[in-house]
Write a structure and sequence with these properties.
By secondary structure, this protein is α/β, with parallel strands linked by helices. Helix content is about 20%, strand content about 25%. The structure holds zinc ion.
Length: about 240
Amino acid sequence: MQKLTDGFFTFTGLMVGRVYCTEDADGGLTIIDASIASAAPKIERQLHKAGRAPTDVKRIIVTHAHPDHIGGLPALHKLTGAQVICSHIERDYVEGKAAIPLPPKSSLRFPDTLMAATPRLQTGTLVSRVVADGDVLEDVFGGLEVLHTPGHSPGHISLWQPQRRILITGDVAMHMPWGVRLPFAAFTLEMDEDRRSLTRIAGLGAELVCFGHGRPLRSKDAAKLPDAARKRGLPA
Ligand SMILES: [Zn+2]
């Protein structure tokens, strides 16, 4: 676990998808997103190394139900027994009752067509609590606000800690080695809607921006976020 700031960490060495961890006032931990299946044992090892037991994880928040964010969820849920929290819109996808909608291949332009995927059911995990825009998770990280940020997926949520000005974007934008960009078109249902979501969260004035993919942006670098709304996911 790498410390980002007091009480806030990211797990390291995961193949795809960032997983964050908060230390909460009740002494428990909250994990945000679950990466792919191979991440669960790595997360377990890093928790132990930090002197914590998997059962210290009381809550797992899912930003959206794409396989690189919930692939590790069944194993993590089993290890921790934590509550699973997601948007009410994303619930059926997290529980494996419906396949998450993806844009049809015919709507994509090259080179996005190369990444096109077919929606399919995923191994479901029971959701314990659903949230909506404006809800505050009082027990998480001193009060974590839920922002409904649709576009990449219908029930996508971002998370905002207003006192500490920390933003967890999910996949509204990605931090690629060449800069902050909109997410890949092949996995984004409504790009214009995602752009509006990005404009909304870029206006928050975050001092630490944590993405679903890529390294976090700090202080003045966080001001780069609004620029991303104009750019596509792949380099020109
Ligand atoms: Zn995604």
